[in-house]
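Provenance

Sequences were taken from public entries as deposited. Structures were produced by running a predictor on each sequence independently, with no templates supplied. The record for Preprotein translocase subunit SecG from Halorutilus salinus is shown for reference.
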Amino acid sequence: MSSGENSGGLMSSAGLVRYFENQDSRGIKMDPKTIVAVCVAIGFVVQTLNFAYA
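Predicted structure for Preprotein translocase subunit SecG:
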């Protein structure tokens, strides 16, 4: 293999690194555990309502 064949690897990943480094802080910051807990709670409410009215 010549060095010319593998020269695009670092360049192709450089855009992803730049994208993740430039994340702005204007969005809502939430802990992933909070999101999982909210999803479980919503699922529990849906299942409870399904059981109550079915």
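Residues 8 and 42 are 46 Å apart (CA to CA).
The chain has two helices and no strands.
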